Amino acid sequence: MIGVDWGTTSFRAFRVGRDGSIRDRRASPRGILAVPDGRFGDTLREEIGPWLALGEDKVLLSGMIGSRQGWKEAPYLPCPAGPADIAGALVDIGFDWAKVKLVPGLSGVDETGVAEVMRGEEAQVVGVPALLRDGGLACLPGTHSKWVRVAGGRITGFTTHMTGEMFSVLRGHTILARMMRDGPSDGAPFDAGLARSAEPGGLLHHLFGIRALTLANRLPETDAPAYLSGLLIGHEVRAALARHPGSVVQVIGAPELTALYARVITACGGYAERHDGEAAAHGLALIAGHADWG
Amino acid sequence: MIGVDWGTTSFRAFRVGRDGSIRDRRASPRGILAVPDGRFGDTLREEIGPWLALGEDKVLLSGMIGSRQGWKEAPYLPCPAGPADIAGALVDIGFDWAKVKLVPGLSGVDETGVAEVMRGEEAQVVGVPALLRDGGLACLPGTHSKWVRVAGGRITGFTTHMTGEMFSVLRGHTILARMMRDGPSDGAPFDAGLARSAEPGGLLHHLFGIRALTLANRLPETDAPAYLSGLLIGHEVRAALARHPGSVVQVIGAPELTALYARVITACGGYAERHDGEAAAHGLALIAGHADWG
Question: Which keywords belong to this entry (chains A, B) (predicted)?
Answer without folding.
Answer: Kinase, Transferase
